[in-house]
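Key result, reporting period 2: structure in, sequence out.
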C-alpha cells in the first residue's frame, strides 16, 4: 500500500459516518437470470431466497427472452466476442451501422450514434457540441449522467424548476442573445417517475430558437402508443434535436446506449465525442440482441400494453392500501417514506416476505425524500403483483404507516 495509515483511517471514518446515518448502500446478489422472480443472496454468503422482483429496469421483460438470447448467441458465433478497437479505426462492423439505422427509424430521427452506455452518451454530447458562449438550461431533476456531462462542457449552465414551464420561459428570455441555447430534460424522471412536458418544451424551443435534448432511457420501448418514447406520447416525434437512450433497460437490459437526432449533430459527435473516439465499440452480442428487441417491439405492442395495465393496477392498489405515492403515469412508482432508516428497514422486512424492493435515499435522492422505488414489468403477472401488495400491506401495518400523511410519517421516525 502506498498511502499512510492516517489516510486509510480517514476513508474508514467517512464510511462509518455513511453507515451511522443509515445511508450505506448494500449490494444484493442475484443468482439467476433477470425476471419477474429472482434468487437473491443478501447479505453475501447467506441462504438464497426466491423473491418477486419489484425494482428492475426490465420494463418489457426482455432481459432473458429466448429470442434475444438466441440473437446474442448467433452474434458470438458469427461476429465474435469483441472488436478490440474503437469505431474509427477497425471497430465498426456492418451490424453497428444497421443498428444505428434501425434506431433512427424507430425513434423517428435522422441519424444515430452508438455508445458503450447511455452514461457515456450523456458525457459526450455537450462538450462536443457547445462552446463557451452557449447556454445549457436543464431541469433541476435531470439524471446524474447528464449533470456529469454538462460539467465537462465549456458552455455556461443554468437550471429551471422541475417541469415549471413559466420558469423555463424566464430563463430562455434571460439568455435569448446567446448564440446557441439547449433545453435539457429527462423524458421520464428516474426517481419520481413523472413525465416531462415535451409538447410545451418544444413550443418554447421553437419560440426562442433553442435546441432540445431529452434523455429517454426510462421510456424508450414502452411510452407512447407504439413505444417510441415520451416524444411520441407528447406528439413531438421529429421535433426533438437530440435523444439519448439506453439498451440497458427496456431494450434488452444489457448495456449500451445511443444519441439519436439531427444528422449534422450526430456527424459532429462522430468527430468530437470523446467516449466514442476513445472507447471500444459496442459488443456484437449487444448489437444484434438489440436489433432482435426492435423486431419484437415493431411486431406487436403486446408487452407495452401489459406493462401499462400492470402499472395502472399497482398504482391504484397501493394508493388504496394507504401508501403515499409520487403521482405519475409511468411504470416507476415511488413509495414515499421520507426517512432513510425507515425506508431501509421496510425494504429489509419486504425481503423477508419475498419481495425485492430497495430503499433510495440521499445522495441518490434529496435529503428527506427517502423512498422505495417500485418498478413494474411486462414480466409480472397479476399473481406477482397481488403477492407483492400483500407483503407491502403486512409490513405497512407492522410499521404503522398505512394511511399516514408526510407529517405523521416523520413523527414516527423522530
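The corresponding designed sequence is given below.
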Amino acid at each position: 500500500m502506498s498511502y499512510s495509515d492516517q489516510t486509510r483511517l480517514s476513508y474508514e471514518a467517512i464510511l462509518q459516518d455513511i453507515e451511522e446515518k443509515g445511508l450505506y448502500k448494500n449490494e444484493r446478489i442475484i443468482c439467476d437470470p433477470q425476471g419477474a422472480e429472482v434468487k437473491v443472496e443478501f447479505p453475501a454468503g447467506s441462504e438464497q431466497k426466491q423473491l418477486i422482483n419489484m425494482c428492475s429496469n426490465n420494463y418489457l421483460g426482455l432481459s432473458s427472452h429466448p429470442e434475444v438470447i438466441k440473437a446474442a448467441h448467433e452474434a458470438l458465433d458469427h461476429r465474435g466476442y469483441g472488436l478490440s478497437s474503437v469505431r474509427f479505426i477497425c471497430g465498426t462492423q456492418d451490424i453497428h451501422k444497421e443498428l444505428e439505422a434501425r434506431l433512427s427509424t424507430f425513434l423517428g430521427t435522422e441519424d444515430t450514434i452508438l455508445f458503450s452506455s447511455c452514461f457515456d452518451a450523456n458525457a459526450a454530447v455537450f462538450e462536443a457540441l457547445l462552446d463557451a458562449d452557449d447556454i445549457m438550461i436543464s431541469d433541476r431533476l435531470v439524471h446524474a449522467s447528464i449533470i456529469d456531462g454538462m460539467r465537462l462542457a465549456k458552455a455556461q449552465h443554468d437550471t429551471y424548476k422541475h417541469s415549471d414551464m413559466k420558469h423555463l420561459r424566464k430563463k430562455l428570455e434571460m439568455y435569448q442573445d446567446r448564440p446557441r441555447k439547449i433545453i435539457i430534460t429527462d423524458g421520464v424522471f428516474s426517481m419520481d417517475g413523472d413525465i416531462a412536458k415535451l409538447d410545451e418544451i418544444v413550443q418554447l424551443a421553437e419560440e426562442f430558437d433553442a435546441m432540445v435534448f431529452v434523455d429517454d432511457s426510462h421510456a424508450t420501448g414502452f411510452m407512447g402508443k407504439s413505444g417510441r418514447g415520451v416524444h411520441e406520447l407528447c406528439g413531438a416525434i421529429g421535433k426533438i434535436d437530440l435523444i439519448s437512450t439506453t439498451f440497458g433497460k427496456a431494450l434488452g437490459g444489457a448495456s449500451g446506449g445511443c444519441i439519436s437526432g439531427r444528422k449534422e449533430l450526430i456527424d459532429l459527435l462522430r468527430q468530437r465525442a470523446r467516449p466514442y473516439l476513445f472507447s471500444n465499440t459496442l459488443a456484437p452480442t449487444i448489437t444484434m440482441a438489440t436489433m432482435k428487441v426492435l423486431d419484437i417491439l415493431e411486431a406487436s405492442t403486446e408487452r407495452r400494453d401489459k406493462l401499462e395495465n400492470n402499472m395502472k393496477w399497482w398504482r391504484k392498489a397501493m394508493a388504496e392500501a394507504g401508501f403515499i405515492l409520487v403521482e405519475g403515469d409511468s411504470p416507476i412508482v415511488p413509495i414515499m417514506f421520507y426517512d432513510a432508516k425507515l425506508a431501509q428497514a421496510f425494504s429489509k422486512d419486504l425481503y423477508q416476505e419475498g419481495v425485492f424492493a430497495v430503499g433510495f435515499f440521499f445522495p441518490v435522492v434529496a435529503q428527506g425524500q427517502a423512498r422505495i422505488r417500485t418498478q413494474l414489468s411486462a414480466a409480472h403477472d397479476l399473481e406477482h403483483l397481488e403477492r407483492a401488495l400483500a407483503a407491502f400491506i403486512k409490513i405497512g401495518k407492522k410499521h404503522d404507516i398505512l394511511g399516514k400523511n408526510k407529517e405523521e410519517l416523520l413523527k414516527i421516525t423522530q
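Residues 66-299 form a domain with the Aspartate Aminotransferase; domain 2 fold (CATH 3.40.640.10). The chain has two domains: 20-53+301-413, 66-299. This case is discussed further under Risks and Mitigation.
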